[in-house]
Amino acid sequence: MQNRNPFSWRKKQMARSIYGYENPRETTGRIVCANCHLANKPVEIEVPQAVLPDTVFEAIVRIPYDMQLKQVLANGKKGGLNVGAVLILPEGFELAPTDRISPELKEKIGQFVFQSYRPQ
């Protein structure tokens, strides 16, 4: 019987969580989140039908959920749910650099955080 060090495993998992996965798909093909697996929700995504090369475009992801639901925060108080999504861009596509994003789009993006899952 082999002993496993659970702390070592957890430490590796935490490192993956912090830095993101190289590939956000499990071996079964299921798309996974880099930080949690707490829920599966249906999503709606809105993207252009066609995009010209070197064009900045907007992808809108909607995740319908009950806004009244709360989670326990680090300070022990109740707060809004953390909600996120994994968006896999086709080969050759990448996130636009900040200097190419219009002020209107920057305002829409607001405080959203983007975590890359592949090496830059």
Explain the overall architecture.
There is one protein chain. This protein is α+β, with helices and mostly antiparallel strands and 120 residues long. The chain has one domain (1-120): Cytochrome f large domain (Immunoglobulin-like), CATH 2.60.40.830. 18% of the residues lie in helices and 10% in strands. It is built from two helices and four strands. The protein has helices spanning 6-19, 103-109, and strands spanning 44-46, 60-62, 70-72, 78-80. The strands form two sheets. The chain has a two-stranded antiparallel sheet with strand order 1-2. A two-stranded antiparallel sheet has the order 3-4. The radius of gyration is 18 Å and the shape is globular. The chain starts with 5 loop residues before the first helix and ends in an 11-residue tail after the last helix.
Strand order in the largest sheet: 1-2
- Mean of residue pLDDT values: 75
Please provide the count of β strands: 4
Q: For the CA atoms, what is the radius of gyration? A: 18 Å
H/E order of the elements?
HEEEEH
Number of helical regions: 2
Class of secondary structure makeup: alpha+beta
The CATH class, by name, is Mainly Beta
CATH architecture: Sandwich
Output the CATH topology: Immunoglobulin-like
User: Mind telling me the CATH superfamily name?
Assistant: Cytochrome f large domain
Number of domains: 1
Key traits:
single chain, 120 residues, alpha+beta, Immunoglobulin-like, two-stranded antiparallel sheet, 18% helix
Topology diagram in text:
Layout: H1 6-19, E1 44-46, E2 60-62, E3 70-72, E4 78-80, H2 103-109
Antiparallel strand pairs: 1-2, 3-4
